[in-house]
Amino acid sequence: MGGIAVNSxxxxxxxxxxxxxxSNHYAEYRTGIYDVFxxxxxxxxxxxxxxxxxxxxxxxxxxxxxxxxxWLTECDDVTKAGSVKVVSxxxxxxxxxxxxxxxxxxxxxxYVIIDQYGNQLQNETSIFNARLxxxxxQPIVQDEILTWAxxxxxxxxxxxxxxxxxxxxxxxxxxxxDINLDGxxxxxxxxxxxxxxxxxxxxxxxxxxxxxxxxxGNINIFDLAVLKCILLQSTEKLKGI
Length: 241
Fold this sequence. Notes:
By secondary structure, the chain is an alpha+beta fold. Helix content is 15%, strand content 38%.
């Protein structure tokens, strides 16, 4: 299960599942391939709402296991999905996000926007240079801006991401401080910035934008100081988790 969100008349339940359900665990219908789904449920069971989606049927018995299921992906041995999230947006809409993997390597975040009845309002859109948490923690939303954090226990930092859905951007593409453009702000970025200031390396245009932490059009020792403060604060927050 990925999460649940609510609007005025419905709930949206999201996650990953096999499309073909069989009550017998050893049935031939099991595929081992899990697609992203959203299931729309009326808040009032007595309401007759125009809900989108299809029934998920037990292939052995013919019984309906789930109603109003909307399948958002068609995963296979090459393309897979993970870390599914959902948030409620203004105007009785939902945003469903998930990570897309290709050949078992993370590629990008995908998201769609649907109305509260399950009708798709915006085609699948990609967000690069960002990750979703593999826990149940959902992004928070203010107006059309999504914000979330991902703790990296190996590097000892917390990475923060922000996406403005109004701009329909394809990335949190320039994360301030992410100079090596790997989708996270880490010690490696500080090392690169220090080398740049010592004239021992060059930066591409998009790297310069990420390195301008002061946002004053210049890259200097003050940007390095801000970056080191960010790394220190992230480490302290992670210790407090």
